[in-house]
């Protein structure tokens, strides 16, 4: 079975969000982009659909959008190829307006750092030495 994941996230300013993730090195798919949404491509099977808040509301029934300043809905973790890549992406995110969400965690075989993006969504970048997994 082949599985892809498309995480849907509400954003306040679609253009700023596209620019933010582009600064981190991630492309958006213009085929899935209009004034309401874009598709950020993280890899061959991992995507985030960034949706303007009014458009996002059409995807849910009667629930409110989580206020990311007050609550956490999820932490989105992306595995990358090296510790240096973790630092590079998180440093770019912070320089582009993100906020650090936790101190770096170094467990030897695994290293991670996190940030809250422009809309307060929590992201964790991590590297894991898979050879240490016995």
TrEMBL record:
Transmembrane residue ranges: none
Signal peptide stretch: none
Gene3D superfamilies: 2,3-Dihydroxybiphenyl 1,2-Dioxygenase, domain 1 (3.10.180.10)
GO molecular function, one term: lyase activity
Domain called VOC: residue spans: 2-128
Top-level taxon of origin: Bacteria
Record Pfam families: Ble-like_N (PF22677)
Keywords recorded for this protein, A-Z: Lyase
PANTHER family xref list: BLR2408 PROTEIN, BLR2520 PROTEIN
Name of this chain's protein: Putative lactoylglutathione lyase
Originating organism: Saccharothrix tamanrassetensis
